[in-house]
């Protein structure tokens, strides 16, 4: 199977009382997305490194850890120790995204940045070679179950053009409100990876929903 598209179910929407089963239920998923919220960077609190470690014990899949936290420099090592494969921090939470990304790579994990809907992507295009992944938020970070913001697709298209023009292999991921109704627009703009929380875990059959999202994205990808 080709590496892309990647469907990354967000465990934020799962039943935490059955975490391991819920993670294992989405066997068709490429990655597992883990949303860490500190109640400061975003107005909601989810969980921390112990739950990332519990998720790690539940699956061999790539753990895509999305840190919606202040002072990410101070905390990233805890998430690496917990078993994160890709550590994504918000550019709005740090003064030096390039230095933090470089230090993540030196520590042996993939380095990702995330941008809130109001943050222009243009400021980061010149530094793309430092980032293994860019996560475009298509909702305001903080809560699952919000409506997709279609205007964020333009950021995906901008990133796709820049990454292709420079021959980079930075992965473009989108997060927020992704469902069977919205995934094709992001895929058509050249997105590689798709986070889906409610669409997957509120479905009657979460794994069947992953397969459906994968099919829709595959058919809509530009290449
Ligand atoms: C939002 C999180 C998302 C969220 C996605 O702050 O980063 O990953 O869980 O949930 P849905 O797919 O329900 O929008
Ligand atoms: Zn997320």
TrEMBL record:
Pathway: Carbohydrate degradation. It comes from the Bacteria. GO terms for biological process: pentose catabolic process; pentose-phosphate shunt. GO terms for cellular component: cytoplasm. Its EC number is 5.1.3.1. GO terms for molecular function: D-ribulose-phosphate 3-epimerase activity; metal ion binding. Catalyzes the reversible epimerization of D-ribulose 5-phosphate to D-xylulose 5-phosphate. The active site is at 35 (proton acceptor), 175 (proton donor). It comes from Corynebacterium aquilae DSM 44791. This is Ribulose-phosphate 3-epimerase. SUPFAM superfamilies: Ribulose-phoshate binding barrel. It is an enzyme of class 5 (isomerase). A divalent metal cation binds at residues 33, 35, 66, 175. Pfam families: Ribul_P_3_epim. Its cofactor is Zn(2+); Fe(2+); Mn(2+); Co(2+). Binds 1 divalent metal cation per subunit. Keywords: Carbohydrate metabolism, Cobalt, Isomerase, Manganese, Metal-binding, Zinc. HAMAP family: RPE. PROSITE patterns: RIBUL_P_3_EPIMER_1, RIBUL_P_3_EPIMER_2. Belongs to the ribulose-phosphate 3-epimerase family. The lineage of its organism: Bacteria, Bacillati, Actinomycetota, Actinomycetes, Mycobacteriales. It catalyses: D-ribulose 5-phosphate = D-xylulose 5-phosphate. InterPro entries: Aldolase_TIM (IPR013785), Ribul_P_3_epim (IPR026019), Ribul_P_3_epim-like (IPR000056), RibuloseP-bd_barrel (IPR011060).
């Amino acid at each position: 199977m080709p590496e892309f598209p990647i469907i990354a179910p967000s465990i934020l929407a799962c039943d935490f009382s059955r975490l391991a089963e819920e993670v294992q239920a989405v066997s068709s998923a490429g990655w597992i997305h883990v949303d860490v919220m500190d109640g400061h960077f975003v107005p909601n609190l989810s969980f921390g490194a112990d739950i990332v470690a519990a998720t790690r014990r539940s699956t061999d899949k790539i753990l895509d850890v999305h840190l919606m936290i202040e002072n990410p420099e101070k905390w990233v090592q805890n998430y690496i120790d917990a078993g994160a494969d890709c550590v994504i921090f918000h550019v709005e939470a740090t003064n030096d995204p390039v230095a933090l990304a470089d230090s993540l790579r030196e520590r042996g994990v993939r380095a990702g940045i995330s941008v809130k809907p109001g943050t222009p992507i243009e400021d980061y295009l010149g530094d793309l070679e430092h980032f293994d992944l860019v996560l475009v938020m298509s909702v305001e970070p903080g809560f699952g179950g919000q409506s997709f913001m279609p205007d964020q697709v333009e950021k995906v298209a901008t990133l796709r053009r820049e990454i292709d023009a420079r021959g980079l292999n930075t992965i473009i991921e989108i997060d927020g409100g992704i469902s069977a109704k919205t995934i094709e627009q992001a895929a058509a703009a050249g997105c590689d990876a798709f986070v889906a929380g409610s669409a997957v875990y509120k479905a009657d059959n979460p794994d069947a929903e992953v397969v459906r999202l994968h099919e829709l994205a595959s058919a809509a990808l530009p290449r």
